[in-house]
Amino acid sequence: MKNKLGVMQGRLVPKYQGRYQAFPIGYWKDEFIVAQKFGLDLIEFILDFNDAEENPLLKSGGVDEILAASQATSVSVKTICADYFMEAPLHSSNCKLAEESFKILERLLEAAKVLKITDIVIPCVDQSSLKTEESVNRFIKQIIKIIPTIEAENINLSLETDFAPKLFIELLDKLNSKNITVNYDIGNSAALGFDSDEELATYGDRITDIHIKDRVFGGEPVILGEGNADFVKFFNKLKEFDYQGPFIMQAYRDDEGVKVFKKQLDWIKKYLNG
Questions:
Q1: What does pTM read for this prediction?
Q2: What are phi and psi of 257, to 5 degrees?
């Protein structure tokens, strides 16, 4: 099976409210047309905390709008990046906030069923990092409640963490579900100083969603090939696994998006086609 190639929402249109990564309210449909021109298969939809109820994933009639945009362009939505949980973590120590976030996850799964989503990425990095044992325990308690639903619908919760490989596989083992999987971000791994061979050897068979990005060690995103990500090493190791998921371009962006995206898309294709 040929892996699908997609783009993180917002990378092909001007920045929304000047934000680096955000759901572009009011002009999100435009991106489907641009993605079609680039020959992309997918857009990984974003659910932000800000104005969440304006997002078609939650808004009444919104899922039908997404399906119509997909049908018109042959650009599918099969994965969701739930950035909402960066601002309102499922494992928040604020019980009310955690409860509200869990309800959002349930609603998101309802939309995901209709869209035939394969993966919902749950970011546990930066402000939503699982920094303490207590936060890990709260996270496990929340996720375990939703496992029967995701298993019944065969929708993956694809976790992105800043854990070293040993800690990450321990978390996956505690959750103990085929539908709790890994979102692997090439650039974020490089920024954390992790060894991609060690990561893939530990949980390569659990990866279901890959974000293509480059970052400098301890620093910010840069144009693909200009940071510390070792793409040759990563893609060579990945060949050892039967990776069936998508590759999502979450690479460096500027204010407009399209020109710098095209440059990086051309650069990465030698790895994707290899």
A1: 0.96
A2: 105, -45
